[in-house]
User: What shape does this take?
Amino acid sequence: MNWQSIAKQSLGFFPTPLHLLPALSSQLAGPQIYIKRDDLSGLALGGNKVRKLEFLLGDALRQQANCIITAGAAQSNHCRQTAAAAAKLNLPCFLLLGGNAPSEAQGNVLLDKLFGAQIRWAGEQRKGEGIDVLEQQLRSEGLNPYVVPYGGSDAVGCLGFAAALEELLQQQSDVDEIIFASSSGASHAGLMLAKRYLQSTIKLRGINIDKANHAEQSFNQRIANLASASALRFGLKEAFAADEVCLDDAYLGEGYGILGDAEREAIMLLAQTEGILLDPVYTAKAMVGLIARVRQGCYSPQQKILFWHTGGAPALFAYSQQLLS
Ligand SMILES: Cc1ncc(COP(=O)(O)O)c(C=O)c1O
Assistant: This one.
């Protein structure tokens, strides 16, 4: 894909490693399981958002923004990576986090503070509902903020994951299916865009980790719209339809951010077979989906299934009691 015309700010270390998980593959006795290590993307303890932020903050610099705003849940990995990227670029960062100020800063909240972010607590709202108000307030104070939407999911953010599929196919082109956690949708949409553009036959299976998305009838349509809008940024008039989106709702468990027995098992299994840390909110649920599908016999031993590790391990420290109970 030709990225020349698109503003981009280097923030992480790419390509991220891709390797086989021999012990996990042997323990589950199913297909060959590979992993793409975006948990090692380099900035601020890693994660998938670094890819989106390279394009989003490239766009912010192009627009001469002088501060960054974004939003998410209290333990948002996206907000932590945005705070780090803004710090690296010497831009003040304002975070709108769901919930109330905790008595002790743990996990991602601790890291947000170390990166110097200014945190506003948003109570029930964890998806950036108040972001416009904050933007107006900062504008009235004479600042020129760049708003990174919730999860970094807009047409620009998607480009990070379109580039990511191209990167993966250059590393290993014979993967049959990719399994990944899907939440705000741009990782999924970017992968769809690149799959179409590169005429790849790889199957994309997003694991929905948020019941709120499930309730939102139009979520598949939202992902398709993101892919279509992102294609336009790339100069392509490609339309994507909701029925092209493979979003698996079978592994929602108790809901967003709730750690159940299945997620605990997945975290322990990866830690104790491969020495790899999953996170409690996103990658644990995606791995629950992968494990369940292997156990159901969905794949043959010849198939190559890739788990896209999208990061998030810093949140483990905020879940220590639930993890060890
Ligand atoms: C660790 C982790 N995995 C997956 C996702 C989901 O990515 P997306 O929001 O692009 O669907 C997120 C989003 O916050 C995340 O933090």
In short: The chain has two domains: 18-47+154-324, 49-152. The chain has twelve helices and ten strands. Strands lie at 18-20, 32-37, 67-72, 93-97, 118-121, 145-147, 177-182, 203-208, 247-248, 304-309.
